[in-house]
Amino acid sequence: MEGKDKENITIVGAGLVGCLLACYLGKRGYKVTVYEKRADRRKASAGAGRSINLACSDRGWQALDHIGLGDVVRQEAIPMRGRMLHSQEEQLNFQPYGTGNQAIYSVSRGGLNSILMEHAENDFGVEFVFDMKCMDVDLETAKATFLHYGTKQEHHIQSDVILGADGAFSRVRGIMQRMDHFDYTQDYIESDYKELCIPAGADGNHVLDKEALHIWPRGKFMLIALPNPDGSFTCTLFMPYEGVPSFEQLNNPAEIEKYFKEVFPDAYRIMPSLKQDFEENPQASLVIIRCHPWNYKGKVCLIGDASHAIVPFYGQGMNSGFEDVYVLDQMIDKYEGDWNNILPAFTKLRKPDADAIADLALYNYRVMADSVNDPDFLLRKKLEHRIMELYPEKYKSLYSMVTFSHMRYSEAKRRGIAQDERFKKIISEHDVASMFKREEIDAFIHKNLDILIHS
């Protein structure tokens, strides 16, 4: 549907979701202006330490393909076909994410943001205004006040609709919190993160398998590494901010070096700038945001992290935000451009799925940091993967439902919980490990297929 009478839409926030949303609405013919408090990221470095590489999967690709940008982004993306686990004894264990050619893709946050911004401007007529801090929003009239950092002048902007895509610490949401019956929770997990780097080898190539997401799981803390096109890996250390062990303890170069040598020995040997990176890159927190309602009538609505920030351990932060945009676009068609119906319907549809992926992301943090070293967990995953290989049309793992499908997150969570309980029961009642050794597992799966795949 074309933009209804060229309605004026203000988007607050020029991050990934805000820029993709601008593309969608600009393509429809709406007059879209995006206000961003930071400088134009295409002209200035966004700074290290807050640019965790992103894992784009099916939900993200669907949203990008729908706007015609999927192939553009794929040119800069690297497939990761599974997780490569690094033990403290330097043993490797590769766990495929799916079957066949299924993969998630490592993409640069800054690079993707620039691509979306360029296409929003050049292809869809979107205007970007930078260095503009949102000061206030009149929810009844959709009038916003912005302060320009340079001139210190206030700008009063009248719109038909205001969409808050301004991240986990959203100013638009802060204003909505003054509403009656607005529910809001903000929960920090015990871990912070810090970005580090593994550079390319002397020959310019990757020094680790580039088609894997590398994980050094160590219980309450872990290191991960995602590949970049230039041969490097973007690494992120997740660990408690206080206690033992914690960031609080790693407060000098000697302690940092000693810690990495002992805990991540194979990573340490390929991180020549470790001490410098650790000192210069900021330590950042991880927060889960839940709120409701996301909209105020048909005038103002939150989207992406502003409405449902999650921890990054399912690789679904960007993907869920992009799916928000895709679903909102469907609501525009369904309700023929009537924002009084679009925004409440969007909120009602997406809220249960946002809650579900928040729960699943926190669950996967425990899996990545600890359970991947648990023999029972690994046996369940091995059994599950074999079922998927034998019966790909009949069975999907929780990970596959979340990552390689467009099933609603809430439904994937429901099915995944039921599957895990069935697998635990079956493994407790049968010697599945021995069946794998005796090559009897396929016959066992076939005999018990109805029980194994029932959802």
What do these coordinates show?
- By secondary structure, this protein is of the alpha/beta class.
- Among the domains are: 4-47 and 57-74 and 108-185 and 286-365, FAD/NAD(P)-binding domain (3-Layer(bba) Sandwich); 374-453, no CATH class.
- 40% of the residues lie in helices and 23% in strands.
- The chain contains 17 helices and 19 strands.
- A seven-stranded mixed sheet has the order 6-5-14-15-16-13-17. It has a six-stranded mixed sheet with strand order 8-2-1-12-19-18. Strands 3-7-4 form a three-stranded antiparallel sheet.
- A hairpin with a 5-residue loop joins strand 15 (222-227) and strand 16.
- Helix 10 runs antiparallel to helix 11 and helix 12 crosses helix 14 (409-429).
- It is globular.
- The protein starts with 7 loop residues before the first strand and ends with a helix.
- The model is unreliable at 46-50 (pLDDT under 50).
